């Protein structure tokens, strides 16, 4: 099954102003009650992925959604795409470390929930934020698209409902966990080859070297960052900077011109200018053009790194123009 639209536009439809205000008030009441009781205790990493049925839905999903976004994975044992998507969602739940909870729903055992959400096919993924249901996507999808959707979901939870996630007791887990498996292989040689290719101006070679690492170790942070940088340098290598900037200045709504100019801004060290240019272009565009700009902006975030405050500021600005 091919993935359907992964846009978060459903947030606007489902979270009308009155409903959003009521949900936000309930979430604030819940957090205040937790604070009066001494604050929420840290949860174990195993609590980030849970199985949910109809009987426990209110407790495990609706109530928890006042603290943290809850992502619902509707699946079945016989569903082959589910066997690809579910492990990926479980891994991302652990990686996001309390920014959302993954709740797995076996549709064969929970037909009523399937009907309530209007699900026509699986896998189907929804979210519940402050008691409100948001459709995310249906069908298996590439990891990068799923990450982008989760990032937008978390941003909505923070911006509209003040949900900042839950605390995970990683120290307690470390005391009881088995030793981490050794990575699949030494990557020093491949990473060094990629750096040498970059230094020599062989951007295509660097891209391939980083991809070789990621094909064996998808979570390799150094390779992810290196790949984003190498792809950026490859894109700008054949540009005429003066021509690109003039075209962008003359055509503010030209998506390709603004994307190219943002790449040049970033390479030149003008990070805020690059981010601001693309956020403004997202505001001015719609449909496929808007999505193309948003995707490029997320790629530029990868070049700078998620912990950089300029990325955090740009994510907030992007959320404001999207929602």
Automatic annotation (TrEMBL):
Residues 14-155 form the Thioredoxin domain. The lineage of its organism: Bacteria, Bacillati, Actinomycetota, Actinomycetes, Kitasatosporales. This is Tetratricopeptide repeat protein. SUPFAM superfamilies: Thioredoxin-like, TPR-like. It comes from Streptomyces albipurpureus. It comes from the Bacteria. PROSITE patterns: THIOREDOXIN_2 (PS51352). PANTHER family: THIOREDOXIN, MITOCHONDRIAL (PTHR43601:SF3).
């Amino acid at each position: 099954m091919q993935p359907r639209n992964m846009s978060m536009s459903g947030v606007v439809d489902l979270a009308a102003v009155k409903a959003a205000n009521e949900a936000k008030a309930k979430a604030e009441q819940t957090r205040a009650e937790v604070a009066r009781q001494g604050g929420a205790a840290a949860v174990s990493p195993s609590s980030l992925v849970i199985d949910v049925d109809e009987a426990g839905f209110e407790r495990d999903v609706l109530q928890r959604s006042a603290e943290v976004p809850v992502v619902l994975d509707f699946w079945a044992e016989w569903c082959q795409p589910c066997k690809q998507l579910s492990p990926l969602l479980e891994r991302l739940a652990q990686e996001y470390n309390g920014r959302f909870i993954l709740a797995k729903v076996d549709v064969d055992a929970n037909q009523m929930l399937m009907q309530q959400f209007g699900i026509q096919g699986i896998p189907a993924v929804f979210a519940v934020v402050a008691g409100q249901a948001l459709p995310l996507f249906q069908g298996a999808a590439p990891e990068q698209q799923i990450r982008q959707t989760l990032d937008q979901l978390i941003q909505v939870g923070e911006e509209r409902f003040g949900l900042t996630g839950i605390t995970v007791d990683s120290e307690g887990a470390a005391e009881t966990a088995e030793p981490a498996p050794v990575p699949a292989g030494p990557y020093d040689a491949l990473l060094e080859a990629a750096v040498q290719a970059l230094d020599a101006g062989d951007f295509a070679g660097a891209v391939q070297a980083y991809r070789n690492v990621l094909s064996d170790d998808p979570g390799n942070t150094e390779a992810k960052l290196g790949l984003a940088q190498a792809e950026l340098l490859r894109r700008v290598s054949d540009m005429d900077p003066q021509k690109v900037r003039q075209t962008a200045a003359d055509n503010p709504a030209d998506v390709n011109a603004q994307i190219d100019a943002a790449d040049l801004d970033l390479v030149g060290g003008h990070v805020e200018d690059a981010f601001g240019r693309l956020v403004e272009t997202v505001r001015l565009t719609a449909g496929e053009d808007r999505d193309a700009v948003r995707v490029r902006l997320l790629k530029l975030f990868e070049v700078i790194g998620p912990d950089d405050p300029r990325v955090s500021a740009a994510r907030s600005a992007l959320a404001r123009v999207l929602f």
